[in-house]
Amino acid sequence: MNLQVAEDARYYGALDGLRALSVLAVVWNHARPMGLSAPLASRGYLGVDVFFVISGFLITMLLLREEQRHGNVRLGSFWARRALRLWPLWYGILITLSALFLFVLPNAAMAKPFWRDLPWNATYTSNFIVPGTFLALSWSLALEEQFYLVWPPIVARLRSAAAPVLLFLGGLSVALHLGLFDGLILEWFGRDGARNLALRATLLPFVLGCSLALAPGVLARLARPALALPWLLVLLGCAALPDSVAPGQIRLGAQVAAAGLVAACVGPREPRWLSVRPLRWIGERAYGVYLLHLFCLQLVTSFRPWNHGERDFTAFALVALVSLGAAGLSYRFIERPFLQLKDRFRRGTTGRR
């Protein structure tokens, strides 16, 4: 693996467009009409894997660019920028729910599992438990935060270990996806533990994203805007595979396609259809949409209670619109004030995360 920085470290508008499609897929996964039987309709969770590929690529690229320009990487400043981006909204949600269940709804059915899960959610370790509330999506936040904690020191201080670490984690992830350890996992961890481990097996998207940034020669061959639509069709084709195909194999194919799609978005020219302003607007607020859409789903269904078998396209449309509105407000009044502080911890790196 050629451990050099990808030459182009600019802001990639097409990646915001890709984030928009990915987060809308996740919203669809939770608010979709339940009567649909096509496999593709139930695979919106694959949008999370696309997020992970983007994270792996951008974080590695930015770290390498900082080292190239300044001779080293200030890890403390990197972690401060990550905290300013991710912590305010997440901890704001946890504090708000804590106050709600402490002072307003102490006897609510959700209160007990919320308090049980709170230490895990507050420390970004919820991927090690089977959560009991609708904050179950926090497993992905935990996995990404752990990536931010472990990977930057390897890039900045232990560069010779980067390739072996990626090869090991990539190989382990592929083996888990292919079910090579299913028997041992069920025996050691039980069914709930096996399900939780399946979530943690999504290390391959990070590996693929990091590898793109570390291998500019490979990236240059893949970074062609004309390849974006074919890669997207491959990803959708994997998602449309029948249920008779093992879920791990479906996810493996989709993750490889996601890496190809990300690579196609970061060349000298970007796919124009992913760089249009509405998609970029949604992509910039994708984090808020992701964290808030389950609350919006609860809100929408409380006004018009859809049963699982009756929920129609109207429910998804309303949840998506309300989520976009809530994320817009969150970005304006919660996230952006903290994002403006990031420049205090920046040394001229370019690109945006």
Looking at this protein, list some descriptive labels.
353 residues, single chain, disordered N terminus, transmembrane, transmembrane helix, 14 helices, acyltransferase activity, transferring groups other than amino-acyl groups, mainly alpha, Acyl_transf_3_dom
Task: Please outline the helices and strands.
Elements: H1 13-31, H2 46-70, H3 75-104, H4 111-122, H5 138-157, H6 162-177, H7 182-200, H8 204-214, H9 216-222, H10 228-239, H11 247-264, H12 277-284, H13 286-303, H14 313-339
Helix pairs in contact: 1-2, 1-12, 1-13, 1-14, 2-5, 2-8, 2-11, 3-4, 3-5, 3-14, 6-8, 8-11, 10-11, 13-14
- Strand % is under 5%
Overall pLDDT level: 90
Judged by helices, strands and strand pairing, the structural class is: mainly alpha
Q: What share of the residues lie within helices?
A: 55-70%
Low-confidence stretches: 1-9
Molecular shape:
globular
Largest sheet: none
Radius of gyration, in angstroms, nearest whole number: 20 Å
Element-level helix/strand string: HHHHHHHHHHHHHH
What does it look like?
With 353 residues, the protein is mostly helical. It has one domain (13-345). It is 69% helix and 0% strand. It is built from 14 helices and no strands. The longest helix is centred in the first third of the chain and has 30 residues, at 75-104. It is globular. Residues 1-9 have low confidence and may be disordered.
